[in-house]
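Long-time lurker. I teach an intro course on protein structure, and each term I like to show students one example going from raw sequence to a predicted 3D structure in token notation. This year I'd like something fresh instead of my usual example. Would anyone be willing to generate the tokens for the chain below so I can use it in lecture? Attribution to the forum is fine with me.
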Amino acid sequence: MNVVPGKTYLLRLINAGLNTENFFAIANHKLTIVEADAEYTKALHTDKVMLAPGQTLNVLVTADQPISRYSMAVGPYMSARNVPFQNITSVGYFQYLGATPNSISLPAMLPSFNDNLAVKTVMDGLRGLNTSDVPKVIDKNLFVTIGVNVNKCNRKNPKKNCQGTNGGVFAASMNNISFIRPNVSLLEAYYRDKAGYFTDDFPGAPLKFYDFVNGAPNNAPNDTNAMNGTRLFVLEYGTRVQLILQDTGTVSTENHPIHLHGYSFYVVGYGTGNYNPDTANFNLMDPPYMNTIGVPVGGWAAIRFTADNPGVWFMHCHLEIHLSWGLSVAIIVKNGQGPLETLPHPPADYPRC
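-- Reply from a regular --
Happy to contribute to a lecture. Here you go:
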């Protein structure tokens, strides 16, 4: 990328990957975050950022250093323990006009692959710019645990199909329910009132509370099984929702990027350890407005939104392998009053099976 000395550039950063979260930095240059997930933020100055799959950040960077070539680098962030990954750095160049082709390239200083503090520091400082409609009164409180499971093997070919811990099968879940995607569209099943494709009994809290981070069951696969089901959660139109997302320590704690379709949400709280409503600090003044939040490794995130977009909306981990294992759920938002609060009909030319 050729740059003119003294000019400021807007970089739109997109993690278009599947299974790796990534740090980004430019050697000797500060980044100023001004937008996250297509929503303006208050300016936040940093020397590196981390993006999960599906996340976007817009940053300003000023070419205010001596004329030379500076590395723009991307490297992995891996918060889970004992998980193989490609520890590879990708490099481009932030090259000043006037730099010679053989100019020495100054390396970008990326955090170590497991630097959880570097991730937390940026999130702690991120503030929203337009936050006049943060829900202050809550109608529905939800508490959802997220994590990985190991199910007992019941396959005909266990050597091939059961390569999880202690001969089990890897799964993933929310509130210990591993989501099974049906063979029809959930939106169509809901719209046409087709029975038998889902149930509306997803629990609004774990069936059992315990020390999710440090006391999670780990005698795989004997006590690490998830239940299976296509279980949805139903919200009335206009419900003001608070959702606590809690990481768990079965198999490993990990930073899980949770994405909600159909909505952006305010990230009003973010912390390490088990969520405790008596000690959690919430920001209701200027929280960032996002559609994907990395629930911190061994920690929790609190989000708020108003359910004003009727339909069936998917909420899932944006690490593709976790999504394939069932770390997801769908939320039904019922119709309100009048055409502007009602799920529209399918288009006339909508393809039919």
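Some talking points for your students: The two ends are 47 Å apart (CA to CA). The first helix runs from residue 116 to 125.
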